Amino acid sequence: MTQPMRDRIVSFKFWKQGGVIAHASDPTIIGRRFDPTDDLSRAWSGEISGSFEDLDHAESAAEAALGIPLLEVYSPIRELWSGDIIAVAEFYEKAEQLEVDMARARRTSWLVVGSAFTASTIVLFSIVAIGDNTIRRQGRLLERRLKESEQMAEQNARLRSRVVEASERYATQTDRFLKKLGSELHDGPAQYLSLAALRLEAAFSDRPEKPAEAEEIQQSLQKSLAEIRALSRGLSAPDIDNLALIDVVKRAIEDHSEHSPLRPDVSLQGSQTIELSVSDKLCVFRFLQETLSNAARYAPNSRCTVICEAHNDRVVIHVNDEGPGFDPSDGKVLRDDGGQGLLGLRDRVESIGGRFEVRSSPGKGTSVTMTLFPRKMSTS
Description:
Blueprint: H1 5-8, E1 9-16, E2 20-24, H2 38-44, E3 49-52, H3 61-64, E4 70-78, E5 85-94, H4 96-187, H5 189-203, H6 212-235, H7 245-258, E6 265-270, H8 278-298, E7 304-310, E8 315-321, H9 341-351, E9 355-360, E10 366-372
Parallel strand pairs: 6-7
Antiparallel strand pairs: 1-2, 1-5, 3-4, 4-5, 7-8, 8-10, 9-10
Helix pairs in contact: 4-5, 4-6, 4-8, 5-6, 7-8, 8-9
């Protein structure tokens, strides 16, 4: 039940301008002057103001001594006919229930804030936990994929190494087979044709002139013998198994000089003692054989240079000429005469893990470069 107003009011004051108390429930302070408080100033400006348990001012000493919660209210008093504020009434009201309500409101507020904070913390923790699990799961997935990629790369490297080794063995065996075939042609059919030519010459040696038919047979035999010997030379590669890189280069250039007027300028750079496999040496020899042959054929009167660079991990050979040049796309066609051509050279070099490059354009010469990466192995 609500208490009557008179039971709730414990004291009152009526203020005049200047902080003077005109009347009060405590007669000892009537006529005294106090510094105006903020609430009193707002009341003089026309507002009704109040405060709870703000009893620190000197004029509130008696009310503070009561030791009970009080609501302090300031209300302006206006003149009836003019509406001017002529005084301010101040009341001190018991506020036990207000204190209980405020305490309950504070508890409720703290409960709401605490609950919201706890809920937010749980939600944030859940989000972080879910994100952390997702990141860990994706990390494990990436690690597994990376491991699989590394295993695949290792497998590809092993397969590539096996392919290169097989290509080296195949190239070596092919050159040896061609060498043997050239020897067979030289020692077999060429010898028989030579013997037949000698016998034919001997059969008509006692006559001043050979019959025309015999002369034609003699010429055919000599022509066939020359062609077989040329075929034998083209098929046979020299014995270069035990030669160093510099000797292989010199041997290829000397062989070329035996049947061509082209004399290239030779430059040997770096350490020429690098160890090469048999297939690498055959590749160097065939590369110089083919490129010098092309230079002699298409740029016979131009300057030609051979540069051999030997590094610790690679061998680079350049063959340059200042001839008429060509469109490099024309070099991607297989030759009809059975020669290797640039396409065959590219296949030979790349099949053993090397690089092959042709730079040329009409009127600007030609540069052919081969790079080998010696694996220091033998393909015997």
